[in-house]
């Protein structure tokens, strides 16, 4: 393999010798350059294609079944293409769009430009193009007009594909051309998985991708006849290339001068090796003096992968955010970041200094404890090297790269030599979303990002003071303010904090009734049916230090009710949902069962125990020296790691196989959920389960007896979820649970200031007005 890489490098060096000594920058590739002219609005076309591919992916339960696909190919070949040939005048295609099944076959066919042109010319003696229709209203009109023409032209052929996708079939005998098309369409069914990240549709990203695609074409033109290896497009360039191909007449006209060179580009499902990847990287660096890979523009060693590498964070396009109605909640935005380093030859020569120098990555804001170090000697080769690959919340503001020198008697001590800063706002305005900085004129550092997109919400509940029926904290301060009028009722309270530590809800759980006043009656536990849970929107109104009142607006309640037969507990939510809980005789966490009944007609919902679907944690199966699989104790330990986790899955007409919309840990009262999942519903669900299990177990399962705000880690020191390292990042500092998704080691991430609140609660003394432990034990699990 090393000889292949050396050969690729030598080939690139030979090609570079024929180039001009002046490098071209991406920003210098002019739109007016006739040799690189693209006669298509690639940005709008790519957005439209992504929307179309998503619709095709969502239709997988019927569109990709063999009977449906065979009928779609027949309709395309026998009906649609002859219709288009009749309606095409000159090179201008008619402004119509076919039904989705025919358009899908057409799209896949155009991704083989040579085959498609041969097909068109052999049957119609001309190349059939596609109209550039990007506006939704125009699309609806084009589809309606197509239907009218179709009905007149083919009165006995339905406009929609009416084949029963579930019907049985025998393999038909296909003519070679149609059989090849069937194989091509069937292969492309997973194409959307390569571009499903939500930032792909962002205008800023697509503008940068268009610039890089034009740079790729420029590179092909410059290296014409000099490069023998095939070239591998990065994912952003690939998206633009496929979009360009999907408009065949425009593609043929734009690239007629470099048509032979386009045959060297690896298509989406072809297998490629390290040699081709290195050749492409080296040629790009030679042409533009930039790393080929970038954030949102990865390049893989093998394109022939149905399911891409699982990213460490889960994000996808959300059509709506139902939580916009809660003014106390602010969305969470994530972006992907890559940082590359390249040294000058002079710096590489000083090996002793290189051993003493390190690069350190820190954040501009948030996560002050983050210090990711790489030694300068790690970048000793001549090309760009990726130093860090991570995902950051937009609130981190940017990254700082420091050049530090180790010195003194303490090896760990170091002094800052020079720093460079990359702010997200500057990168968003930069060409190709990429900026270059220098350190000491000998080190080049390039950072690239993807546009920030809305990510799942992260909320955690932390203990807070006991409150009375009105929502005021029970304390001498409130008594004095109320002229010593007694405070009625006792409620456990939990403050809900978002990813940035902001209070957004207050959860209150009723456990006691009666009055408390000095020397007077003490509250007593209420019946189970009266132990309601309520959620109030907003933050505490503090009147003195940490003493205050809960917000007034109640946005959700959970009321205990008589459970059905064979169930141990039941709750009725104000959202219209009903939760039932059952505990098998084993009385272990694994014996818990949950049921959800929803009044929403458009979907059904299930609770799956453990981390499932996108939250599943796959671990290598441990073996002993003899190859034996793990023993029973190891299996029990793995089961224990899943305790407390529940995955909320919704089933709809568009997602018949289910889609996970939330992950809950009811023992820690921590939730992660998609924007289309209601925050109040998820919090009610999590709290009700904890209350139910604690009552059935007769044990404080989630530290409910804690009735004071515990000291949290200082805001900004190690903010959970603010920075997540990519698993293939070059950085070795991945041991911290705060640099991984929270659910990989939730117990460590959610502990309060180093104290583990999931085992033995801290020893706290409570005042008489707050009530004794016995009151709350009676109100929770006795």
Automatic annotation (TrEMBL):
Record Pfam families: GRDP-like, GRDP_C
GRPD C-terminal domain boundaries: 496-673
Disordered, as annotated region: 619-639, 754-782
Origin superkingdom: Eukaryota
InterPro entries in UniProt: GRDP-like, GRDP_C
Protein name (database record): GRPD C-terminal domain-containing protein
Organism whose genome encodes this protein: Ficus carica (Common fig)
